[in-house]
Structures are given as structure tokens and as C-alpha cells.
Amino acid sequence: MIESLMHWPQASGSNSELAEHFTDLAPALTARQAAIESARCLYCYDAPCTRICPSEIDVASFIRNIHDKNINGAAAGILKQNILGGSCARVCPTEILCEDACVRNHDEEGQPVKIGLLQRHALDNSTFKSHPFQRSESTGKKIAIVGAGPAGLSCAHRLAMFGNDVVIFEAREKSGGLNEYGIAKYKLTGDFAQKEVDFLLDIGGIEVRHGQTLGGNLKLRDLHAQFDAVFLGLGLNASRQLGLTGENAPGLMSAVDYIADLRQASDLSKLRVPKRAIVIGAGNTAIDMAVQIKRMGAEDVTLVYRRGFESMTATHHEQDIAKENQVRMKTWAAPLEVLLDESGRVRGMRFEETRMEAGKLIGTGAFIEIAADAVFKAIGQSLDPSGISDEMASHLTRSGDKIHVDEYFRTALPGIYAGGDCVAPGQDLTVQAVQHGKLAAMAIHNDIQSQVEAA
């Protein structure tokens, strides 16, 4: 448990009672519901749902397989394009991707085909006797991957399929990245993330070494010398700062740190929970934080954003989840000052009301104060500078705080590739990280084989 939170009371209720608040956000379809829902699909020839899917899943094809009761066929088709299709079915913002593009998504129909739930149904109910993909003949090549998140895992699996040996270096105790540590507990329940990792590793040829931190006990120059190629799936692990006095006061912390504690807790009743909380941010992480702390028993939770609802990166679906969980949402207010009590602990925040003028966000000179025992920052993540601090890594070209790559995910350093949230451009979506890893693996394999043939 994070030390700066010890002055908060423990959660009220038993572990089992609290766990009831973190069951599936969207319950799985029954076989009958899946049959009815799959029958709604028109199997469009130029399916817009497939064209908009970041991981290029043939949506119409897998839904047709469900309709034909070929669950294994549906699952294999999904996994061929997205080896982490189970988690993506649960966390992907389908409401702005495939389901938004569905031709049935209009007023007369009322709703699109439930593509995400059908994808989950196929993968949850498949019964493969062995891993559905087999390794090709060994290439004798060995690739290092830094980061066991969605991008790194996807890259590793595809490289292993091609017959390469892979070593993944991961800083944390478990693999999975954000799926294990950063997604709301009601979206990826139980130990699903680890089961998915275990399934992926079953293809063979992949070794995972934990406790390995780039910039710490791991140097990029050593990996470059020892392996035929290196893929960086670093993610964004550093929380952005508000830049306010009192930012390190007890009671103010990064939302992702608390979410990680919540996801890893073996006993939810041992977690510390504030009575009143402020969450600063406008994305899905901010929503996840606000909803989870409310479900943990916080009496009053206010999400604050400096612009309007229309500018929030959290989808309307996510915003509705917050409202359904009695999260108060305050827009047009920018953080100005952390308010501390006589012991130096957070007692609230002062905000300046804002407005748009001539296309610029400005302060109005009006101020509001919100009382709170806790402030959670969810204002975005950035690349951890310590991860690219060694001499070789410092030569990586960056766009802002992200690594620049070409269309084949090659960095400026020969033999070094990168993908996922740590590269630009990107949408910071799990499904896109998976696609980056897959495409990078194809590029790595082709580049290595081209070198072999040239020799």
C-alpha cells in the first residue's frame, strides 16, 4: 500500500462484499443471446466494421462462424489478427470503432450489432485442444523485447510463430502491462489478464524475465549486441505533473498507481479509501479511477476537467458509466492550488473557472474550491526518461515524449524497433498496441531474413 495514503480509513465492508462491486461491467452473452445477435449481422461485403478495426479482424467472418455454431473457427479468425482478442473484446472502445461503423447503427435499428460481446463470446467459449498456431521451423535468430505489455506480447507471439526465439524483459512482477495493472477492475475481472498471457506463451519459444528495467539493470547497448533485433514496447510509465505546489503532499497521487494497487490487492478491505475524492482528467483512466474509488466506498467523488464535455477523450459511453456511478463531473475548471491542512495533507483543491475565447482556453478570474481528502491525477502518461537514459538509447529520435518510428516501426537506430503507446503517432489503445506489435514482428522477421539472404 502506498505510504502517503495511510491516513485514510480502510475500506468499509468485507473483501467479498467489495468484490461484488467489481463484477463484469457487461455480462457475457448466453449461447441463445449470441445466436440472436449474430443473426442481426448483414455480413456486408465491404464491412465497415472490419475496415475500422485497428487490428484488422474480419468481423463479418467471425460473426458468421458464431451464427453457424463454429465457435472455434470464429475464435481462430480473431486470434489470427489479434492474439489478445479476449482482453480487447472487454476494453476496446467499440462504441467509437466497429460498432459505431456498423450499418445497423441508426435510429430505426436502435443499436449496432454487439460486436465486442460477440468477440468475447467466441473466445470465452472456444475449446482448442492445443495452441491454435504452430511455430515455423527455427530460424536460429533471437530477438529481445523490452516490455511485456500488449505491444511486446503481440510482437513476441508473432515472432515465435515465424520460428524465432524471443526473450521478453519486463520490469514488473507480472506480464500484461496495462491489462494487468492499469485497466479498471470491472472491465478485466479476476485473473483474466494472466490467463491470456499464459495462452499466448503456450506457442513456445518465448522466455520472460521479470525484474528487468531498461535504464537500470538492463542496457540497450547490451541487448543490441547480444540479440539479432530489439523491440521496445515501453509503454508510458511516468505520470505527468500538475506543476503545482503541494503536488507531493500525502493524499495526492497518480490515478494509475492507485488502480494498480486495486487490481493487485488480494483483499480489497485492506485498501485505504478517502471519503471525498477529486479526479483530475478527461480520459478513460480518469473515468476508471473515479468509478472505482466510488465503488470502493468513497462518499463524494468529483471529476474535474478544464474544458467542456465535448472535448473529453473519454467516450460518451465512459462518461455515462461515471454518471451511473454517481460521479460528479465538473467541467471548465483548471487546477490552480493544492489546499493542505495543518498536517500538510490534502484537504481540497482550488480551481479557476475557464472558457474558450478566440480559440484559446483562458481563465475567467472566478475561483471555486472543492473539499477532498484525496486528489488523483489522470492527466496523461509520458515516456519514463530513465528507460532511455543510457548512451545508446539517448540517440533514439523522439517526437515530443514519444519515440519516432517509420512505417515499419524502425527507430533511428539500426536493429531497434518500437511500438505501442511509446511511439508516435498512436491512439494509446490496447488494440492498437497489439497491432503495432504484430506489424513490427513482421518487419523484424523480414528484415532479418533479408540480411540472411543478402549474406
Q: What is the count of structural domains?
A: 3
Give the helix level as a range of percent. 25-40%
- Name of the level-1 CATH class of the largest domain: Alpha Beta
Number of helices: 16
Mean pLDDT: 93
Cα-to-Cα separation, first versus last residue: 55 Å
- Largest sheet, strands/sense/barrel: 5 strands, parallel
Rg over CA atoms, rounded to whole Å, is 23 Å
Number of strands: 18
CATH homologous superfamily label of the largest domain: FAD/NAD(P)-binding domain
Low-confidence stretches: none
State the shape.
globular
Tell me the β content.
Answer: 15-25%
State the secondary-structure class.
alpha/beta
What's the CATH topology label of the largest domain? FAD/NAD(P)-binding domain
Task: For the largest sheet, list the strands in their spatial order.
Answer: 3-2-1-4-17
Examine the secondary-structure arrangement and name the CATH architecture of the largest domain: 3-Layer(bba) Sandwich
Structure description:
By secondary structure, the chain is α/β, with parallel strands linked by helices. The protein folds into 3 domains: 26-124, Fumarate Reductase Iron-sulfur Protein, Chain B, domain 2 (Orthogonal Bundle); 142-237 and 383-454, 3-Layer(bba) Sandwich (FAD/NAD(P)-binding domain), CATH 3.50.50.60; 239-380, FAD/NAD(P)-binding domain, CATH 3.50.50.60. The protein is built from 16 helices and 18 strands. It has helices spanning 15-19, 31-39, 48-52, 59-67, 71-81, 85-91, 98-101, 115-124, 150-161, 178-181, 192-201, 220-226, 255-264, 284-295, 316-324, 430-454; strands at 142-146, 165-170, 206-210, 229-232, 238-239, 252-254, 276-281, 300-304, 328-330, 333-340, 346-357, 360-371, 374-378, 381-382, 398-399, 402-404, 416-418, 423-424. A 5-stranded parallel beta sheet has the order 3-2-1-4-17, sandwiched between helices. The chain has a 5-stranded parallel beta sheet with strand order 6-13-7-8-9. Helix 9 (150-161) links the parallel strand 1 and strand 2. The longest helix has 25 residues, at 430-454. The model has no long low-confidence stretch (mean pLDDT 93).
